[in-house]
Design goal:
By secondary structure, the chain is of the alpha/beta class. It is built from 10 helices and 12 strands. The termini are far apart. The strands form 2 sheets. Strands 6-7-8-3-9-10-12-11 form an 8-stranded mixed β-sheet, with helices on both faces. It has a domain of 226 residues: P-loop containing nucleotide triphosphate hydrolases (Rossmann fold), CATH 3.40.50.300. The longest helix is centred in the middle third of the chain and has 18 residues.
Amino acid sequence: MKNEAPQQYLLKVDNLKKHFFMGKKSMFSKEQLIVKALDGVSFELKRGETLGIVGESGCGKSTMGRAILRLHEPTSGHIEFEGQDLMKLSNKKLRQKRKDLQIIFQDPYGSLNQRMTVGSMLAEIVNTHKLVPKKEVNEYVYRVLEEVGLKKEHYYRFPHEFSGGQRQRVGIARALCVDPKLIVCDEAVSALDVSVQSQILNLLQRLKKERELTYIFISHDLSVVKHISNRVAVMYLGKIIELADNKELFKNPKHPYTKALLSAVPIVGQTNKAERVILKGDIPSAFEIPTGCRFHTRCPIATDKCKVDDPEFREVSKNHFSACHYS
């Protein structure tokens, strides 16, 4: 009997949407106010890969991460994890699947129970999922804490007794406790000092290698994304508008929005600094997304065609995708 080849893709996301219904436009109107926070996102994620997600605040990065885990219930679309459509799972089966899909939040302090010691919190998670016999729970938690750079004594401390970097290590430990396969890192280092950022990034990379993890790494910091990602997706107003391998995207961006982002941020080691591209105006409201290309209101090369026709997200060179008529 032949052994089946392992699935190449751990995660497939197809046309994922998340719309927030904010009530009627006015007391005399029947029209609904709808925020299209996520408006048709599709991508595939290989096992052991880190996919960086970048874009301005409000572009839908965090909403996408939460929707994939069904922390925000998607409006429509498909989320296939290990060949299983998460959208079709009952609440019971989804809870069972939760251990494979974890998240590290931007604000570890706000996501931790202030009335419980760190050890009690982690032990509760281990007991809930019945990962080890009860008599082994404490030792199991000690090992996880040590794995993220904390000590056995930290088991008995409360969240307010930790520094910001230590709290983020606790957040990472909480995700690791259930031995996950995919972790969404939602601005996991943006609230930390630069020196601490590098320590946490190095920790995440070490854990990825040792535990064979897969990451979706959400950040507004391009230099951080460049450091940790294998591929990078650029989002604008709820959609991915460019997707490419890390080196290719930073060396040869295709979409005007990506070019503008890269021109505005100094990248360590980048010798051929691009000419600064100044975008006109502000990012449009998610209540009223522009017709045609959603970026045309700020694009320096937009034409009349861009105002009418929504560009196809297509492969413009090998494994390099862009949603622009002129890429």
